[in-house]
Amino acid sequence: MIRIGTSGWRYPEWRDGFYRNVPQRRWLSHLAGHVTTIEINSSFYRLQPPSNYRKWATETPPDFTFAVKGPKLITHVKRLRHIDEPLKAFVDSLALGPKQGPLIWQLPPSMRFNPGVLKDFLAALPPGRHAVEPRHESFRTDAYFDLLRAHNVAHVVSDAPTFPCIEAVTADFAYVRLHGHDELYISSYDDRQLNEWARKILDWNRDTYVYFDNTMKGAATDNAQGLAQRLGMPITSHM
C-alpha cells in the first residue's frame, strides 16, 4: 500500500493554478480527487475540534487517508517532556474514523537526540502508526533507529536543503516528506529525482506514505501525481 499526497491543502498561492475556478470551500475535495492522502498541518498549531476532523472526513473519498501532525505544544514547547495531558487532549480530539492514518511528530531543529527523553515519549504514544521527523544531525545514530524499531515507529525520511536527510526505515511502514531539494518548500522535483524516489520506495517493499511539502509555488500536486505515475498508481480518486 503506497499513498502519495501533499502536506496540507489550504494554499492561496494555488488559487490561480491547481485550484483555478474551484471555490475555497471545495479545495479539500478537489485535491482529494487527485491524491490518495493528505497531511493535516493545522493540528500542529492548535488543537482542532473533533467536528473539523469529521467534516474533513466527509469531504474525501471512502478509501482516503489522512496523516495528522502532532501539536507543537508537545514537540517544540514541552520538547517531548511532561506531555501526558496535551497528548491525551490531542488524541481525544481525533475524529477521522477509518480515514485516520499515521500521526507525525516533527521535532525542532535545535533538539538533539536524547535517548531517555525519546524512549519515554515513544512509550507514552497510543496504539497506532506513528512517525518521528528529527531535524538535527545527532539523530543519525543506531541508538535512535533501535529505539524506533523497538516501538515500530517510523523514522521520517525528509528531503530538504536546511536539515539532514537521514535515510532509514525503522517500522513496518515508511514515511517520506519531500520539502523541496534545492529550495525549502519551493523547488520542484525533476524527472531524475522522482525516478530515484520511486526506486527507493519500491526497494523498501512496505506500506509507504509520501507527502510533498514543496507547496509555495504549487509544485507539490504535480510532483505527487508524477511520483504516483512512476509507481503505477492511479492519479485520481473517486468520491
UniProtKB/TrEMBL annotation:
Q: Name one Pfam family in it.
A: DUF72
Q: Which InterPro entries match?
A: DUF72, UPF0759_sf
Tell me which positions the record assigns to the signal sequence: none
Q: What is this protein called?
A: DUF72 domain-containing protein
Q: What's the source species for this entry?
A: Lentzea miocenica
Supply the source organism's classification: Bacteria, Bacillati, Actinomycetota, Actinomycetes, Pseudonocardiales
